[in-house]
């Protein structure tokens, strides 16, 4: 959500945080679907958050971010870390 502050459109940081959390939930669900019970919930969440931290600054199309993060997290888990 954006709002006008002194003539400038500014994104609401709460909305950005919620959007990020939604993307991370999507990515975590995708990784769980792919790896099944091979990894516990915490390991998957940690891999997703790590992958997100590596990828999000370089993503040019944010709508693809959840799937890119999920793929990276899955690769990290398969590689053992």
Description of the molecule:
- A two-stranded antiparallel sheet has the order 1-2.
- A hairpin with a 2-residue loop joins strand 1 and strand 2 (8-11).
- Helix content is 64%, strand content 10%.
- It is mainly α and 81 residues long.
- The protein has one domain (20-78).
- It has helices at 13-35, 41-55, 65-78; strands spanning 2-5, 8-11.
- The mean pLDDT is 82.
- The protein is built from three helices and two strands.
Please state how the strands of the largest beta sheet are arranged side by side.
Answer: 1-2
Query: Helical stretch count?
Result: 3
The total domain count is 1
Oligomer: single chain
Please state the structural category: mainly alpha
Question: What is the beta-strand fraction?
Answer: 5-15%
Relative helix content: 55-70%
Q: How many strands, what sense, and barrel or not for the largest sheet?
A: 2 strands, antiparallel
Mean pLDDT: 82
Number of strands: 2
- Tell me the overall shape: elongated
Q: Ranges with pLDDT <50 over ≥5 residues?
A: none
What gyration radius follows from the Cα positions, in whole Å?
A: 15 Å
User: What string gives the helices and strands in order?
Assistant: EEHHH
N-to-C span: 36 Å
Domain Protein-tyrosine-phosphatase-like N-terminal: 24-79
Protein name: Protein-tyrosine-phosphatase-like N-terminal domain-containing protein
Region (Disordered): 1-21
Pfam families: Phosphatase-like_N
């Amino acid at each position: 959500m954006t709002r006008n502050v002194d003539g400038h459109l500014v994104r609401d940081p709460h909305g950005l945080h919620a959007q990020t959390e939604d993307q991370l939930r999507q990515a975590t669900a995708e990784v769980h679907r792919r790896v099944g019970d091979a990894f516990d919930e915490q390991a998957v969440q940690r891999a997703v958050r790590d992958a997100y931290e590596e990828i999000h600054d370089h993503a040019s199309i944010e709508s693809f971010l959840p799937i890119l993060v999920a793929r990276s997290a899955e690769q990290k888990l398969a590689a053992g870390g």
